[in-house]
Design a protein that fits this description.
Mean pLDDT: 93
Strand order of the largest sheet: 4-3-2-5-1-6-8-7
Distance between the termini: 42 Å
CATH architecture: 3-Layer(aba) Sandwich
Structural class: alpha/beta
Number of strands: 8
Number of helices: 6
Number of domains: 1
Length: about 220
């Protein structure tokens, strides 16, 4: 069975839009494209190298595919370009005839069901890059097995966020972490079970606490 592994750059407030450059994705008036550029260092490079070290197929939303297809085929012998160009690319799209990048395969219709079918096959991991809308669809169906987050020490205030409406409650286990020299937290989480809750409240709540609960319940 194949695993879906997401690797994503996010700000402290969870924004993942246009990390690579000002012209990458300005939809919604986003004006901070390229916000990761000045933070890169050797430890971050090692984390990314590890993400690409094993065999993988790419899993991409249509807009991220278009961004990648306009860059990586023209990046020469860059090691990432070599891997991305050779990999099979599964793309969530309604326009399969426009997938011009080599080794591209369209996922149409119910994309979550298509990815679930891919997971049941034998093959390399499915590496999910960018693709905010696709991430939302897969999170809603609990189809992402592992998430590597590179969290940058800045707040963007606007833009597309990693965890949006429809994300199901889910527990993860931290399996690896580190910090770059520029303050980027690099952490890998594995999906693990359901959320369990507890309480620090007193066994016998005070009258004030009971009243507070009633007020909160009435407010919905």
């Amino acid at each position: 069975m194949r695993q879906v592994v997401a690797a994503t750059f996010v700000s402290l407030d969870g924004v993942m839009q246009a990390p690579g450059g000002p012209q990458e994705d300005s939809r919604g008036g986003f004006s901070h494209g390229g916000w990761t550029f000045h933070y890169w260092d050797e430890p971050m490079g090692k984390v990314m190298d590890k993400a690409f070290a094993e065999d993988f197929s790419l899993l991409l939303g249509r807009r991220t595919y278009d961004i990648f297809a306009a860059h990586w085929p023209y990046a020469g012998d860059d090691p990432i370009a070599v891997k991305f160009n050779a990999a099979i690319k599964y793309v969530a799209t309604s326009e399969p005839q426009t997938l011009t990048w080599q080794n591209s395969v369209a996922l149409r219709g119910d994309v979550a069901a298509e990815v679930a079918a891919l997971k049941r096959q034998d093959g390399p991991k499915l590496l999910l890059q960018g693709s905010g809308e696709l991430i939302q669809a897969l999170l809603a169906k609990d189809l992402i097995d592992e998430v590597t987050l590179l969290t940058f020490p800045l707040v963007l205030g606007e833009g597309k966020r990693l965890f949006g409406p429809g994300t199901i409650p889910a527990a993860f286990r931290l399996v690896e972490s580190g910090v770059s020299s520029t303050g980027v937290i690099m952490a890998t989480y594995r999906r693990e079970g359901e959320i369990t809750t507890g309480s620090f409240a007193m066994a016998e709540p005070s009258a004030a606490e009971i009243a507070r609960r009633e007020i909160f319940a009435a407010e919905g």
